[in-house]
Every structure is written in structure tokens, then in C-alpha cells.
TrEMBL record:
MF terms in GO: S-adenosylmethionine-dependent methyltransferase activity
Domain Methyltransferase type span(s) in chain numbering: 65-111
Pfam families per UniProt: Methyltransf_11
InterPro entries for this protein: Methyltransf_11, SAM-dependent_MTases_sf
Signal peptide: none
Lineage: unclassified sequences, metagenomes, ecological metagenomes
Protein name: Methyltransferase type 11 domain-containing protein
The species this protein was found in: marine metagenome
């Protein structure tokens, strides 16, 4: 009985993900489907008066997919519909770059990605459900396993998301006794259930062959988990701030000491400077030295922040 309910649950989410992908495609579009699930889309797309072509796909015993584009030749399409194909290609970045050659200048990829960090999966991971974990990770890559990984993979492929939809489902833990939440603390369950992405089961998105964020910036931002919203993370930020302030105060003090030493070497008597034929040069040196010190302070501060982050 429980498995039947779970089957219906998965089926409903899957059907919603299909409808969302079709909704992203305009009427009368030229569409290339690169997915073994093409039969689930063909009729819906023809109802929208789209012209549809299907790429030849071979799947081995490990569910790895290889593609034959000979029947496509040099055709261009407004839409390339991938569904979840990216999950089963050996090199997602290389594959995305390769198929982009079939896109018209204003064309888009349409993809479906399963969020492996949804609420149900997280609880099963926490319970150490080995059979489930193996079924999730078996014979698939993780390039599109979460929103962070999707953004990073697309950035590496010199592409970006133009529209994002979420297939979401509210889950009542009280009605899902098969999840075995009794072993988890209330605080942990609250943390998991209140996360903004825990109710997302699929990401549906369109992709253009135009990067909006540099790869270096994307990698840097990906180092900050979007799930770090705890008091502990606030303490980490506070420590960074205190360390930065101490470093700045140290640099300011060093600046003062060096400037005072410079003045003592050159002298502070204005009448003596007037009599000195090199007074103008000394004044220029003073300004130059002070500017150099200010630049040093800024540069040291920048390096400190880079080391901290």
C-alpha cells in the first residue's frame, strides 16, 4: 500500500515536470528532442503546432547514453528538449557545448533536474538508508543534482539559466511514517523542513548559450552554501569581521609610526624648510610616501579578506 502511494506521488511529480517543460516552449517552435522519453512529449508538442525531430540515442547496461546526430546534420532548432538527459552523459559540460551548435541564435535548451536534496531524500540520508542512497547515485552524474551544481555546470559550459520553475510538494511528516523520523531530533527536523529548497523535487529551466556570470565568480559564490542560515554561521561571520577590524587597526598604527618616522627624518620646522632649497622636493616626497602607505593599507586589507574567505 505504501509503495503504491509513493508510486503515485512520484508519478504526479513527474507529470508536472513534463507539463512545465512543454509550457516553456512557444507554439510553432522547431524542437529537437534528445531524450529516450521523447514519446512523453511528442503529442503535447504537436498539439502546440511544433515541428519535432528526435535524436538517435543508445543506452548501455550502466544507463550511460550515447548519441547519433547524423540525421540532424546541420539543422538549427529554436528548442532542444533534454528532459533529464544530462544526468546520464559522461561529460555534461562537453555535451552541452556540443549540442549548442544545433541551436538557432535565439534558441534555448530545456532541462529537467531532480533535486536529490529534497525533504524525503534528506531524511533518508540522515537515517543511513543504504539501499535508497545507492539507488539515487547509481549510474548517474551529479552535475544537475542541486541548484548550486546546475549553475556551476552551466557556467563551465559558457551558458546560463534564462527561466527557472520548481516542481514543489508540501510534505507532512506525520503522514509519512515510512520515513522513520523518530530517530531525529525536533531541532534537526525543523532545520530540514524549513529550508527553502526542501519541498522542491524537480527544477525545470531554460538555458541560453550566453554566460551571465564569470566562471571564477560562480566558483567563488558556490563556496558559500545557500543553506548556511544558522546561528553558527553568524558566529563565523562575526569572527571574520573582528579579525578584519583588528587587521585594519594594526595597519593604521603601522601607518602612523612610519609617517612619524618620516617626519622626524625630514624635520618639522617650517622655517627651516623654507630656507632649505629642497623644501619643495621634501613636500612632494611626503605626499608620495603617504599615498604609498594608504595604497599598502588597502592592498593588505584585500589580501586579508581573500585569505579569510
Amino acid at each position: 500500500m505504501g509503495s503504491d502511494k509513493m508510486g503515485n506521488f512520484d508519478y504526479d511529480l513527474r507529470q508536472q515536470s513534463i507539463n512545465f517543460q512543454v509550457d516553456l516552449i512557444n507554439n510553432q517552435s522547431s524542437v529537437l528532442i534528445i531524450s529516450p522519453n521523447h514519446d512523453q512529449f511528442t503529442k503535447k508538442l504537436k498539439d502546440k503546432e511544433c515541428t519535432v525531430e528526435i535524436a538517435q540515442i543508445s543506452t548501455d547496461e550502466k544507463n550511460t547514453r550515447t548519441f547519433d546526430f547524423k540525421n540532424i546534420e546541420n539543422k538549427k532548432f529554436q528548442i532542444i528538449l533534454l528532459d533529464n538527459t544530462i544526468d546520464y552523459v559522461p561529460n555534461p559540460v562537453k555535451f552541452i557545448k556540443e549540442i549548442n551548435r544545433f541551436l538557432a541564435p535565439d534558441g534555448s535548451l530545456i532541462c529537467r533536474a531532480y533535486n536529490i536534496f529534497n525533504l524525503i531524500n534528506r531524511i533518508r540520508f540522515l537515517n543511513g538508508d543504504a539501499q535508497f542512497i545507492n539507488s539515487v547515485f547509481k549510474n548517474r552524474n551529479l552535475a544537475f543534482s542541486s541548484l548550486d551544481s546546475i549553475l556551476l555546470t552551466l557556467s563551465e559550459a559558457e551558458s546560463s539559466i534564462t527561466k527557472l520553475l520548481r516542481v514543489e510538494k508540501e510534505i507532512s511528516l506525520k503522514s509519512k511514517l515510512d520515513l522513520n523520523t523518530f530517530t531525529l531530533t525536533e531541532e534537526l527536523l525543523k532545520s530540514v523542513t524549513t529550508d527553502s529548497e526542501s519541498k522542491t523535487f524537480y527544477y525545470i529551466f531554460s538555458v541560453s548559450y550566453t554566460p551571465t556570470v564569470s566562471l571564477d565568480t560562480r566558483k567563488w559564490s558556490s563556496s558559500f552554501s545557500k543553506y548556511l542560515v544558522t546561528e553558527g554561521f553568524k558566529e563565523v561571520l562575526t569572527d571574520y569581521k573582528l579579525g578584519y577590524e583588528k587587521h585594519i587597526n594594526y595597519l593604521k598604527q603601522t601607518n602612523r609610526e612610519q609617517y612619524a618616522l618620516m617626519l622626524s627624518n625630514y624635520g618639522t620646522d617650517s622655517s627651516e624648510r623654507i630656507r632649505n632649497k629642497d623644501s619643495t622636493k621634501h613636500s612632494e616626497d611626503d605626499k608620495k610616501f603617504q599615498n604609498e602607505l594608504e595604497v599598502d593599507v588597502l592592498e593588505d586589507s584585500k589580501k586579508f579578506l581573500q585569505r579569510s574567505l
